[in-house]
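Two proteins were folded this term; both appear here.
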Amino acid sequence: MTTEPKIWNTLQRDYRERIEAARPYVMDGKVVEAGDAVKLLEAVIRPGDKVNIEGDNQKQADFLAQCLCEVDTEKVHDLHMVQSVLSIPAHLDVFDKGIAKKVDFSFSGPQAGRLAEYVRDGKIELGAIHTYLELYGRYFVDLTPRVALCVGVSADKDGNIYTGFNTEDTAVIAEAVKFHQGIVIVQVNELVDEVPRVDIPGDWVDFVIQAPRPFYIEPLFTRDPALITDSQILRAMMVIKGIYGEYGIQRLNHGIGFDTAAIELLLPTYGEELGLKGKICSYFVTNPHPTLIPAIESGWVKTMYCFGGEAGMADYVQARPDVFFIGPDGTMRSNRDYAQTAGHYALDMFIGGTLQIDKYGNSSTATASRIAGFGGAPNMGCDAKGRRHSTPGWMKCGEEYGMHDELVGDLPRGKRLVVQLQETFREKMAPGFVDKLDAVALAENAGLDLPPVMIYSDDLTHIVTEEGIAYLHKCSSMADRMAAIRAVAGFTEVGMAEDPDETAALKERGIFKTPADLGIDVRRANRDLLAAKSVKDLVNWSGGLYNPPAKFRNW
């Protein structure tokens, strides 16, 4: 019996066919005119393709995203979008027009409400809500994009790309696509004879387009100190004294939000008062938050590796090369993939906010009305089981772990501190603690096998509310954990089930501590403690190097 010989280069053949179809639109080298961008996309994208539009936390391939919305739906339809962030309207407009059908993503931020509506109405088939590392990993396994629409600062005619301050996801996308015979298209702000630094080599890039306007950058991590509340300052005081100071936390990640901004602005004041400088908060893996400027200027921060940039912070970061990772060209290059890896393995603590915590301690940012996703929080907000190096805070948390002997025996093992900052009632009096997460109903409606939980209870070590701190890792049973959660849940449905005798017993064991137990005078929890009380103060702290976006300027 004879069989046809196996063909092993179908992807290469397909790639060459697509490149040939695009040839009429190529000018000098790899350059395509902006006016031909839609035709280029129609030439290289096929129905049903997996397509990535680079939409990072901040940097957006917004011109190419808009061009994709303008393709002929007879030629391009039913795409499977695989991208880390859904951030701008065009990312969902492609579903309105039938150009795209399915999405796998990590974070949706500004589009969270609209995404929830589309999933509820059946407009979008939802694959999964991933962590960043999880999605990047799948780029190299079963979610490799066939075409990637990326973004950079500048390019030469041969396709060498300079990504600058906001490299973010570009490197991992381009590598996954190009080394599986896919097509990489990059929009840039300008075409130059020679790029300042080659961040993406030209042979990884097929086409470059000078967009008619600079790409959009979302100032996602900027928080105005003027909007920080006394309640957030109280929680920050408890965190600094009852967690950072108690465990000697040197290596950490701060999530997005006013709670962590309050912590950052208390380091040069309250932290200094407690004598903690040099003992906590020396090494950050985070974006260059403007609210960290006073701590950096005061000598608290030794190094900071960044997932991305932050609008207005480029000059300040460039002027602090001892703190930030600066290239030979003099500018920082961020990298979300490397930063997520560092966040997963090299840190002792993750701290951030959430939308809902259930009675068991599971938390999620996916609710009935908002599917925000969770980006990298599950990677940093988990106990990385592969970790094999020790640090004092990690070891101390492991020694206190109430389930250690049952799970590990008598071998020493550390534990990542995972802290959730939570208001008992959030905007519009939405309870921060619930009997069951909205994520459960969301999963049923969207046909997901797993509810989109951000942090599972077994990873969570601390909850901080205005009521106090629950040291959940010290608990030896789920019953204890639930009682500790009730103690900090206030007047929510969960908190109203608190048993005063149980709470008193938890206090005896050091599992629940109020501000008074920590020696904190709540009358001091006000804006007088902040190192900077406005964005203008942050500019002054930076020596004029911080150039905030216009919407944060009110002077």
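Next, the second protein.
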Amino acid sequence: MRSEFIRIYKVVHTWTGIVAGMALFIAFYAGAITIFKEPLARWAAPPSAIHGTVLPLDEAPILIARTLQDHPAAAKDFRLHLKPAEHLPAGLTWEVHEEGADDHDHSSVRHYLATLEGGAAKVEETHPSSLAEFVDTLHRVVGLPVDSDPNRWIMGIIAALYAVALVSGVIVLLPSLVKDFFALRVGRNLKRMWLDAHNVVGIVSLPFHVVMALTAVGFAYHDGFYYIQDKLIHDGKWATAFSRGSGPSSTPPRDPVDMLPPAELLASAQTLSPTFEPTSLQYLNVTGSRATVRVWGHDATAHSPRFMGGFVAVDPYSGKVMNADFLPGHQSAPNAVVGSFFALHFGTYGGTPVQWIYFTLGVAGAWLFYGGNLLWVETRRIKAAREGEAAGIPPEQRRDVRGMAAATVGVCLGAVCGISLTIVAAKWLHGRVGDLDAWHQILYYAVFFGAIAWAFRVGAARSAVHLLWLAAALTFAIPATSLLAWLLPSLGMWAHGSAATLGVDATALAGGLGFVWMARATRQRVLNGPADSVWSARCNKSV
């Protein structure tokens, strides 16, 4: 391939990566955590007598009848959980959205729980932790605070730039692909070592990144894609499959007392798929003409289109299967293709091993974007040194180079520190503040913007060391909080003993050790690196 074309694609790769890199760092780092969204939700959930257990199936019909008798609005959409977990209650749960509010605006949603007490339905408003949802929102909209259509469109543009960076990077590496793949030259030339590591990680994880880029674009503009899918695949019936309520109907309301017991509905689903493991029953419009129960669950032998798995729709009055298009392993070819599109992004196949692979690739991807920007900064240092040597003057970094270094450090490490702090706050602030959901955002963005300001104030070199130590301390605070809660329960915090929640603490402990290593290595670079580098204390300037 002609060298001028390689140079063009190298420029394209560099600038698309720089423009999108910092936003993608947040998306990948938060996305890696989101792979274990359920364990994080369980870690953050306060203990309760009605959590961590399940409602006996033979009591469920009584609770359903009593609840709908006193609260008929719940008939539109309520859920019965079948698996015990710290964040799932033993009873019926439903949500009420404020009129005109966006479905993704969690602040406009009120949560209710009904439990059986003395043969009657006891209904109370609950306030489940939104920690896992908040981290997931950071992932979905690249660090923006609200999962709205405009923010998803911004994410789509960044994902498109990401795809361009991938293609151009592959073209740049093509002439020396084999050599670059097996080259990892460890030595005094740190730029060469970082470049080799960047190339190796990029090549190894290329299929993963291609999937992430394409699926992210699809999610950003999903409304248009769903419209086409509805017309070409579902014959205009997509909305019916996902309908939460009924339209105007002349038929009289149906009596929920006549519904089949949950055990019979589960039997209908498992007869269709013996390997399907139900996790919850979602009742929709049970007093209307289109009453439906979605039996949600997972199938270890098939992929699932969502974190919560797939579902089969059953008529709650007859037990007849109404729709199996979203049942894992029983989808039509077009639906299987669409479902795999989601599964490949979420890692909802292959069980725990695939989740850990996705977590590792997500963290490695975040490092890839962070390291890519640092490589650009280091390249500018070498270029400035050559120009200074030719002109006979000491080299000095340009203001834009120092600005890019400070922005990279502030944005990336600010996101890391903010996420760790807001996780810790789930336990420390529970019961001590009126609106914990708002405090998750306040703490994250206070640390995030504070880190950016500090990086620009003291320069990239010094702030990188400071922020890495802060990231280590805040990440260590996650398992330390659980340990302290176990030792001193009088503090009003908690420490669950399930494998899922202990896994959160163990992962945070490993992450903290990683940040300690990075802080020490960065400090050595700051003290002993080339004097003309923005990473040197001897050439450290604020922007």
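Residues 351-391 form the longest helix (41 residues). The chain has 17 helices and eight strands. These notes refer to the second protein only.
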